[in-house]
Recover the amino acids of this structure.
């Protein structure tokens, strides 16, 4: 019983982590960056403002100014995610149109945050380049038009301000419109459904495993001699696992529905059919794996590999539309991707996707798994009859 | 030592042993490549609807198409909306009519309509990328406008002056060649290891050692099942013999340990050969300590179980727990600061730190190695005591 519930324990931990992440609406805790500015000028302030004033950045990044030694020490002590080092002479070079790279030193103990910093800095560099090239153009043409040094300086100061506001206000280019269909899947709903599907898979796998260990060799031989064929055994396994997992899944699904995380838009009858079909598919798949592998350790390793592979390529972690082409094709061959599509359909029916069509398809897949199992068992019974005349 | 050799011979005869040997290496290399490819090749599918059909809008689209992380499709608005609602694309960008003329007038508010759906994940990222392409254009236009207005002011000329406008615009755009004015030089950690490899630079997190640690731990755990199976059959007899249970236990464990150590060595060589991990002998030493740790913990779990089935599931759950909190699959500590402290107590931290630092003197490495050794020393008497008890 304890072991049966242990996946729920994982679910609870993962749910805790997940809800924490969703509550904050971001996946990374805010982190600190140190800026070492050896060239205090207008241009460098522009770069720094990019980091400190963008609204979507300030929720994730806090910047502190430091000298070189202090920043290195903070990095060593693992207090900051990265150091941004603006070299002396940076602004002069940039004004002359010479590229001077700004060095970003990422903290190796925080690869994710360091990488984020790099991306943020790269986009900041692009925006700064855009502003600076504009400023340079104006001052170049003013020189050509014989403006006095004083006038040029005055215009330059104005330009720095106006161009920096220009890039800071880039958000106004976009007019954002939220589009939604009647049964639109929100991101967290996608993950809730994906999690339910994954749990059904894990449960089918563990239920079969526990069942196999309950029937030891002596018992199975006795059953066999009593005319209880391997087919009967496989059938009873399927029925037992199907029922146990189905009950657990219904409990979990209703918990998700009652707590309002996902909502049900179809009839309860369809819903029950859908869950049954899904569990049946997983169960028959693992019964097939069990029959093919015939060794508990190999079954265990193969099961874990399948679970990981399914989770990674079936779209449970990253939705399949974000995959590169080859992976998307690979993904369309995994049962996880079929189940996920099917389950999403159960909770959020699309207009033109046929529910019964897909149900039938999954049932066919499950039946072919069962057929393969039967074939394997048939061969094994045959062989055993040949080698040892008694017992069977 | 006789028992050790016997156990060793017995193990080598079983084909399952070869699974134990190959599984962690094959799985970590296979999944490692998959995860790496997934990480580097993940693309964000977006749609652009070009209602303006001008040279500027085309330049923006070409700029977006050249970005590696995006898959850009062009289609009419109605088709785009359908794709968005079906969750086949992340977001839709609509370049409105008169985009070019408005831009050249220096206006930019709401020139692009951005459609997102509740399941859009990456709209924020794409928005920044699109903004950088557009700001490039708007800055050039802004500078050109300024130059023209300064020209008019200087020479009191009221003509169109489109040739000056074009000159200034081209001058600004030319500053992006051969490289932008400001770029980023990215380094990781201490100065010696500068990032030159482009592919490695875009990788958030190298998965190989983490995956290896999970599969090795699982393998060590599962193959400790001899202690469960021999508990009531062989242990009582050994206790009565002259060798004694502690010697028997240690020699059997040593036989398993040696195989896993060879496996670790093999894995290390393979990883180095594929050039997917950094670090030298220090990494291997930490891997060896990790194998010792896993073997002993596996034995500890085994002596507390009386049946193989529940033992396997406990082993699987424990290995998963270690993997999740230790950061085998993803850098857990970095994502959520509340489990960072917890994460540092798990042995996988030592592996990651050893790979990064490549020296034993780093506190993260030796503290963790020391902790693993301490756990081993405490567990051993516990195992001997528990295995020696006649009744549960």
């Amino acid at each position: 019983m304890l072991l049966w519930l242990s996946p729920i324990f994982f679910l609870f931990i993962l749910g805790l982590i997940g809800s924490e992440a969703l509550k904050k609406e971001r996946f990374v805790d805010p982190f600190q960056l140190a800026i070492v500015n050896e060239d205090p000028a207008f241009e460098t302030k522009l770069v720094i403002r990019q980091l400190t004033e963008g609204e979507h950045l300030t929720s994730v990044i806090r910047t502190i100014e430091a000298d070189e030694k202090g920043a290195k020490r903070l990095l060593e002590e693992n207090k900051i995610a990265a150091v941004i080092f603006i070299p002396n002479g940076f602004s002069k070079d940039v004004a002359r149109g010479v590229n001077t790279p700004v060095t970003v030193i990422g903290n190796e103990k925080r690869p994710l945050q360091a990488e984020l910093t790099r991306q943020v800095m790269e986009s900041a560099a692009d925006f700064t380049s855009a502003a600076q090239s504009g400023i340079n153009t104006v001052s170049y043409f003013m020189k050509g038009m014989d403006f006095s040094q004083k006038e040029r300086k005055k215009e330059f100061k104005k330009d720095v301000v106006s161009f920096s506001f220009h890039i800071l206000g880039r958000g106004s280019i976009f007019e954002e419109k939220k589009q939604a269909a009647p049964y639109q899947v929100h991101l967290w709903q996608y993950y809730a459904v994906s999690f339910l599907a994954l749990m059904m898979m894990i449960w089918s796998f563990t239920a079969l495993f526990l069942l196999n260990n309950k029937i030891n060799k002596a018992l199975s031989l006795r059953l066999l001699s009593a005319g209880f064929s391997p087919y009967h055994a496989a059938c009873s396994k399927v029925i037992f696992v199907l029922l146990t997992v189905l009950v657990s899944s219904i409990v979990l699904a209703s918990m998700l529905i009652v707590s309002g995380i996902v909502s049900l838009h179809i009839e309860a009858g369809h819903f029950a059919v859908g869950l049954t079909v899904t569990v049946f598919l997983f169960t028959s798949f693992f019964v097939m794996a069990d029959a093919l592998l015939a060794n508990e350790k190999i079954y265990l390793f193969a099961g874990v590999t399948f679970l990981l592979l399914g989770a990674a390529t079936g779209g449970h972690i990253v939705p399949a539309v974000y995959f590169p082409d080859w992976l998307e094709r690979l993904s369309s061959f995994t049962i996880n991707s079929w189940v996920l599509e099917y389950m999403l359909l159960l909770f959020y029916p699309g207009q033109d996707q046929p529910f019964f069509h897909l149900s039938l398809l999954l049932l066919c897949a499950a039946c072919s798994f069962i057929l393969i199992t039967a074939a394997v068992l048939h061969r094994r019974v045959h062989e055993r009859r040949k080698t040892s005349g008694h017992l069977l | 030592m006789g028992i050790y050799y016997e156990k060793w011979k017995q193990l080598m005869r079983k084909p399952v042993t070869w699974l134990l040997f190959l599984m962690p290496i094959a799985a970590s290399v296979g999944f490692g490549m998959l995860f790496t490819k997934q990480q580097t090749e993940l693309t964000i599918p977006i749609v652009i609807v070009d209602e303006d059909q001008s040279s500027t809008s085309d330049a923006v689209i070409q700029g977006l198409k050249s970005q590696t992380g995006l898959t850009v499709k062009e289609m009419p608005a109605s088709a785009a909306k359908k794709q968005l609602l079906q969750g086949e694309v992340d977001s839709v960008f609509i370049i409105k009519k008169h985009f070019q003329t408005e831009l050249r007038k220096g206006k930019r508010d709401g020139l692009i309509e951005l459609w997102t759906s509740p399941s859009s994940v990456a709209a924020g990222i794409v928005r920044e990328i699109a903004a950088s392409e557009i700001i490039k254009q708007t800055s050039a236009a802004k500078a050109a406008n300024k130059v023209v207005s300064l020209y008019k002011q200087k020479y009191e000329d009221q003509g169109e002056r489109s040739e000056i406008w074009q000159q200034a615009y081209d001058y600004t755009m030319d500053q992006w060649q051969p490289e932008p004015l400001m770029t980023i030089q990215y380094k990781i950690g201490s100065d010696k290891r500068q990032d030159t490899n482009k592919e490695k630079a875009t990788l958030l997190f190298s998965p190989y050692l983490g995956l290896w640690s999970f599969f090795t731990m699982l393998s060590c755990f599962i193959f400790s099942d001899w202690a469960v199976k021999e508990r009531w059959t062989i242990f009582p007899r050994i206790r009565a013999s002259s060798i004694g249970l502690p010697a028997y236990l240690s020699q059997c464990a040593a036989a398993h340990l040696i195989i896993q150590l060879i496996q670790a060595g093999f894995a290390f060589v393979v990883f180095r050969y594929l050039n997917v991990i950094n670090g030298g002998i220090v990494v291997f030493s930490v891997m060896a300590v990790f194998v010792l740790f896993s073997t002993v913990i596996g034995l500890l779990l085994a002596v507390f179980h009386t049946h193989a089935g529940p033992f396997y599931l406990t082993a699987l759950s424990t290995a998963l727990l270690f993997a999740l909190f230790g950061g085998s699959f993803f850098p857990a500590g970095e994502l959520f600061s509340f489990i960072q402290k917890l994460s540092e107590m798990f042995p996988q931290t030592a592996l990651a730190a050893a790979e990064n630092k490549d020296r034993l003197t780093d506190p993260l490495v030796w503290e963790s190695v020391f902790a693993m050794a301490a756990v081993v020393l405490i567990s051993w008497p516990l195992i001997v005591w528990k295995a020696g008890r006649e009744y549960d």
Strands of chain A lie at 31-37, 61-65, 82-86, 102-106, 174-178.
